[in-house]
Amino acid sequence: MSDWKFAPVGAALAIGAALLMGQEPAVTGPGATRPQGAAGTTASAAAIAASKQDPAAVERGGKAYATHCAGCHGATAKGGPGAPDLVRSLLVLDDEKGILIAPVLREGRPDKGMPKPNLTEPQIADIVAWLHVQTYAAGHRVTYVFQDVVTGNAKKGEEYFNANCGSCHSATGDLAGIAKRYDPFSLQGRWLQPRGRGGRGAAKPSGKADETVTVTLPGGQSVSGKLEHIDDFNVALREPSGAYRSFTREGDTPKVEVHDPLKPHNELLHKLSDADIHNVTAYLVTLK
Ligand code: HEC
Ligand code: HEC
């Protein structure tokens, strides 16, 4: 997964956090299922909101999809016998406002096993909206799993934690009692996005998540501190003494090395499965 896919997760979290702020998650507890909209809609309300599709169109689209498409492409659009997975279809992923999908829905691909569906243009637009929520939810599992954060297996979460998180954290050290400081929903936001801004899971300014930078001048002298600003032309930092230093950049001069303590977190996000997310959160919730 490339970085552009990762970038919107924070925004999605913030939106989801705002959505759920002050209200209990709709579904919690072991054995809870995700809210099912019409026609096997597996995306949560948060995913619909974050994907910026019109909820009414998504609802109608889900029904039309169930009637006209699910028989071949499966109830969740993940494919059926002989018909491709639409959630991973590049044509669907690359689509904007139906430009690529609509022609397929207008004409079908009769020579390749997809008869012409006979839909009206509004129906096509609705189905496109519904499909975009499915791909959004698949690409942003954080919004997808909002509603049922503590359904995981804490024991498996502990194993995952020991294998992947234990090099930096300890359940009896820095994370002791973390479940007392955050409710489960915020806790999940904290560990998935420790630098997240806004919402209930907002970072406290511990400084441990700050990016640092070392600037090495042509003469060999180097200056380090908290990264305040960086672009192609300038880099600015705050030294431990509190002094603010700013340098003009020209190509590789001076040499600039940025260190992001949260890089491993960001890399983890690319590797986590839905089950890992549930399990780790279920484990962290026990750290009271
Ligand atoms: C009778 C089975 C059938 C039905 C019903 C059907 N499809 Fe298909 N669909 C297919 C097959 C088979 C393909 C692959 C065609 C090909 O190889 O180009 C396909 C291809 C597609 C593609 C192109 C995917 C890509 O990556 O190229 C889209 C989008 C799509 N279908 C959406 C829909 C939607 C939305 C509906 C409902 C309105 C629908 N299909 C109904 C069988 C079906
Ligand atoms: C390479 C080091 C590293 C790894 C690996 C790592 N983290 Fe972190 N984690 C950090 C740093 C640095 C912070 C920011 C600390 C702060 O802001 O207090 C952080 C913050 C957190 C926080 C927020 C703490 C708070 O008090 O708000 C949680 C929870 C957390 N990590 C859980 C995890 C989990 C779970 C894993 C494994 C899936 C993991 N981390 C893997 C370095 C790491």
SS content category? alpha+beta
Morphology call: extended
Task: Name the average pLDDT.
Answer: 78
Question: How do the SSEs run, as a string of H and E?
Answer: HHHHHHHHHHHHEEEEEHH
Helix coverage percent? 40-55%
At the fold tier of CATH, the topology name of the largest domain is Cytochrome Bc1 Complex, Chain D, domain 2
Largest sheet: 5 strands, antiparallel
Associated small molecules: heme C
Distance between the termini: 34 Å
Strand order, biggest sheet? 4-3-2-1-5
Assembly classification: single chain
Question: Per CATH, which architecture of the largest domain?
Answer: Orthogonal Bundle
CATH superfamily of the largest domain: Cytochrome c-like domain
Radius of gyration, in Å, reads: 23 Å
Strand proportion: 5-15%
Low-confidence stretches: 1-41, 143-147, 197-204
Characterization of the model:
The chain is α+β, with helices and mostly antiparallel strands and 288 residues long. It has 3 domains: 33-147, Cytochrome c-like domain (Cytochrome Bc1 Complex, Chain D, domain 2), CATH 1.10.760.10; 153-198 and 263-284; 212-259, SH3 type barrels. The protein has 14 helices and 5 strands. It has helices spanning 3-6, 8-20, 45-50, 55-68, 70-73, 90-93, 101-107, 121-139, 141-144, 154-164, 178-181, 184-192, 263-271, 274-284, and strands at 212-216, 222-230, 234-238, 244-248, 255-259. It has a 5-stranded antiparallel beta sheet with strand order 4-3-2-1-5, with no helix packed on it. Helix 4 crosses helix 8, helix 7 packs across helix 8 (121-139) and helix 12 (184-192) packs across helix 14 (274-284). It is extended. Residues 1-41, 143-147 and 197-204 have low confidence and may be disordered. One heme C binds at residues 161, 164-165, 167-169, 175, 178, 190-191, 194, 203, 206, 208-209, 261-262, 264-265, 268, 280.
